[in-house]
Amino acid sequence: MRTVDYSPFYRATVGFDRVFDLLDSVSSQSAANGYPPYNIEKAGDNAYRIVMAVAGFAEAELNVTQKENELLVTGQTAPTDGQEEKQYLYRGIAGRNFERRFQLADHVKVTGAKLANGLLTIDLQREIPEEKKPRAIPVQGQAALTH
Q1: Both 96 and 123 in a single domain?
Q2: Under 8 Å between Cβ of 100 and 120
Q3: Same structural domain, 52 and 97
């Protein structure tokens, strides 16, 4: 298992403690549970996409929830209604229940989710409020200040 020591960064930065805590939690969480596998893609300047391999799950068995800065994706397989369980000779497609959490940056919102060909695609958009966007501050010369 590989761990990263972030202590040198704590000395050189101010206000980034939360970022390093998130990195620590992600690295420990991903080592413990790799199911279901996923990709995180950048789809534009402020657009992102999470693609999860959820083979065997139907739309009704998947739940995507955003609460503040956390995205929770769960999959609950539907119970068999008294039907006879299948007898597998080899089972390579994991159809077990799962829960996957993602920490989202500030101002990131889920804009949609779709299931196609065994892949769950979750679209994310970063919407920075106008008051948080960078703005240019005009610099005045000394002559302008004395008048």
Answers
A1: yes
A2: no
A3: yes
pTM (whole model) above 0.70: no
Q: Is the domain of 64 the same as that of 11?
A: no
70 and 101 inside one domain: yes
CB atoms within 10 A of CB 81: 5
Pair (16, 48) in one structural domain: no
Task: Give the structural domain span for 97.
Answer: 35-79+92-131
Q: pLDDT truncated to tens, each residue of the chain (147 aa)?
A: 456 665 665 555 555 555 656 666 655 554 456 889 999 999 988 899 999 999 989 999 999 999 988 999 999 987 666 556 778 888 888 778 999 999 998 889 999 999 999 999 999 998 888 888 888 899 988 875 655
